[in-house]
Amino acid sequence: LIVGVILRYGTPSTSGHDKPFSCSQEDRPFTTLLVNVSGKFFEYTLKGEISPGKIHNVEQNDMLRKVTFDPEVFFNILLPPIIFHAGYSLKKRHFFRNLGSILAYAFLGTAVSCFIIGNLMYGVVKLMKLVGQLSGKFYYTDCLLFGAIISATDPVTVLAIFNELHADVDLYALLFGESVLNDAVAIVLSSSIVAYQPTGENTHAFDAAAFFKSVGVFLGIFSGSFMMGAVTGVVTALVTKFTKLHCFPLLETALFFLMSWSTFLLAEACGFTGVVAVLFCGITQAHYTYNNLSVESRSRTKQLFEVLHFLAENFIFSYMGLALFTFQKHIFSPVFIIGAFIAIFFGRAAHIYPLSFLLNLGRRHKISWNFQHMMMFSGLRGAMAFALAIRDTATYSHQMMFSTTLLIVFFTVWIVGGGTTPMLSWLNIRVGVDPDQDPPPTNDSFQVLQGDGPDSERRNRTKQESAWLFRLWYSFDHNYLKPILTHSGPPLTTTLPSWCGLVARCLTSPQVYD
Amino acid sequence: LIVGVILRYGTPSTSGHDKPFSCSQEDRPFTTLLVNVSGKFFEYTLKGEISPGKIHNVEQNDMLRKVTFDPEVFFNILLPPIIFHAGYSLKKRHFFRNLGSILAYAFLGTAVSCFIIGNLMYGVVKLMKLVGQLSGKFYYTDCLLFGAIISATDPVTVLAIFNELHADVDLYALLFGESVLNDAVAIVLSSSIVAYQPTGENTHAFDAAAFFKSVGVFLGIFSGSFMMGAVTGVVTALVTKFTKLHCFPLLETALFFLMSWSTFLLAEACGFTGVVAVLFCGITQAHYTYNNLSVESRSRTKQLFEVLHFLAENFIFSYMGLALFTFQKHIFSPVFIIGAFIAIFFGRAAHIYPLSFLLNLGRRHKISWNFQHMMMFSGLRGAMAFALAIRDTATYSHQMMFSTTLLIVFFTVWIVGGGTTPMLSWLNIRVGVDPDQDPPPTNDSFQVLQGDGPDSERRNRTKQESAWLFRLWYSFDHNYLKPILTHSGPPLTTTLPSWCGLVARCLTSPQVYD
Hints:
The structure is a homodimer of 514-residue chains.
Chain A: H1 2-9, E1 21-25, E2 32-37, E3 40-50, H2 55-58, H3 62-66, H4 72-88, H5 92-97, H6 99-131, H7 140-150, H8 156-165, H9 169-195, H10 208-242, H11 249-269, H12 274-292, H13 295-326, H14 334-362, H15 369-377, H16 383-390, H17 396-418, H18 420-426, H19 455-465, H20 468-485, H21 490-493, H22 504-508
Antiparallel strand pairs in A: 2-3
Helix pairs in contact in A: 1-13, 4-12, 4-13, 6-7, 6-9, 6-14, 7-9, 7-17, 9-10, 10-11, 10-12, 11-12, 11-13, 14-17, 16-17
């Protein structure tokens, strides 16, 4: 923020010799342009379209433009390590135990939130049009897009405090799982909304056919990305299992890194969403490949992605501060901003409470009221909302949405994030929990039975306590996938020779969800 | 290589709708261009000048252009981690013990090699002109630039084999130190040659004043970069010593990474050479900051830079293979290539043997003939030569130099690198040496006395056996710099409270060069 203020107001405006040059072209724009300047030829590449009203902006302030990144940098460089790390460091047992609820919150909840925010914002926009505060076009799909952008919660501050205070593990799993998956949902949601945005000037109305087409696109992209991530993870698991790679930890780490990264590129190349693919790749890698890695590579990969994630996340937050002042197309509309804050409040409420009620009908271990309040409170917006909003700031409506998103991110991270510890104690959520221990029997709200006895006993209890979805998956995974893809489990291990002394310890201990 | 062949010959040439568009401009080229295409405005950015004869190349094959990187990527993204890692993982004791010889080889040797190769190549170019094989301009400074480019040795294969076979540590230190420093020397040398290249069309002749100006620029840039790197290293050491940063290992690692990287950016911003600054920053970080880091950060930073270095180096070598077929402006001139191979042979010989003779006059432990032969043999060219050559491929002469450099790199890495193990045994260079042990007394060529007894004894012997330059530096460093910048050494440690229990172990063991 401070650097942004200095750059904005502390430096002289330099609009010297970089004046744009106009020349006319008949047809569609070329991607490459050759310009003849007094006999010499210079090559130019297409950067993008500029609306006629904004032409003076190009020459406005060169300094500020230099600190502005290509938004695709966020999607292609900064988000993948963050998302991959989220998947790779997932606390699997608690995640899978609450899988059904997490999926409900992430998919259904985000869609509900997106829809409600979109509709409320459409009302706000209509109001602004009546009052005459709207000086550009704002379609219904723009409102829905804003709903998708702002529905990606990122309770990074909340989860950091949870981690530090060792707050309830199931609440942690619910919040973390939801935020990780709804990032993915929001990306796919927003890109399918953009794909079916009306292109003509007069199609204000929302088209039902287009809506269902969007839903189809959404499901297609999501499942495709999921498959892509899972497949690369499985391939890496097979490669690390059936080769001598574990004898060369550096090579192993590098290959692991490159395979995970190429998931992203492959998915993008196939028209899927790289970030979603990378998330599921991370989960698969942690679940299978991790067991095949050498001891050195295990710590190396964990540390590498931890550092990358840390750097990327801090970079995004730093850039947000900078962007608040250096971004040149801010449109701050008080009505829109106040409307957006009210809309996200109602969107979050309509997301958490009805869904929790429905889930509690089916859950043996109910989600208590104070957990629901905490989830309502933890609807922070962060890096993903910012990245989605900055992706397209070409039109009036997108610029207004970007400025509003930035303010919402700042407000929720600073004010709401800062209030996490008081909120935890106010809601009587227990802290100081060892994630591998039984919850104390005094907790009556969310009690789970979880043994820490020997393996088989624990597995039985895990089965007993878990959701049916998890149980189905667990038995399939334990009986078929794990023995094929990793060195653990009985069926395959006995038939395979251990190529290399280094990896001997990998073979000894069968992995359970932890 | 294989992917390059496939891209080149296996894919149809797609020169469809990306045809360049020409329009005329009066003055100098603008960096931003606005083009009016049927009412819409599109923004273009300047990519570079194209010589009129090469205009058809722009539309030739879009696929091949897509796999071609901006050469600055090598300098700004890929080289810094490689060079930093070289500095950070330096075996300090052996490096500093041979400091005088290493400096002589790196500075004097590289300059001699550059000058000799440059002059020989000028002869080759003259010959080509006589025979009529030269179809473009080739100045004397181009030849000198080629000398600078190709003088950067990179015995990565040789050193990998040395490391694996535990070959003689002093020979390793000489080769490694030389290659690390001569990378830096070659960069500065080539940029000072480029800076004083005659700009007019008719200044073929070499200007003595320009030469001395180049030398001045060289010394200025080198010492400036050195200072910049050392200063950031010292600042990081002070920050890590006098703050509680070691209680947050992830933050510490991230800051360490960012400080090291910013050295590069800072140096580039000040007009110095980032890569050189990063090298000395790495040495300083390893020497001082490393001692202040938490145990976790020590392994984390080492592993992080190891992985980054590994990835970057492999990327460069992969890209080299690709570039051999997909680079579109190759000019392979048999005469020039044969001349270059002969020139680098003589350049390396004139670099090693006379200098070794002079150094042996002063050295107590002579550099034996088989060591000299091994050093002569280890004159491999690698990533740095490639990066320097690809930096500017705009003119005829630079394109020919690039193609030749690529072939030299391939030949030396594959053929010469592959012959390292036979060469080692043929030259009777002992292998299986423990770097921390005394050399066996049977070795009469390069015997050094080096105790592994208690600290003070070892320090005395180290002093006794070392070069005067090292002794001077050692006492200054041990008495003043180490106590100020790190937690080791008596003078300051006793007066400083230990802020944090985590770092207690840092305080206990005074560090020696190892």
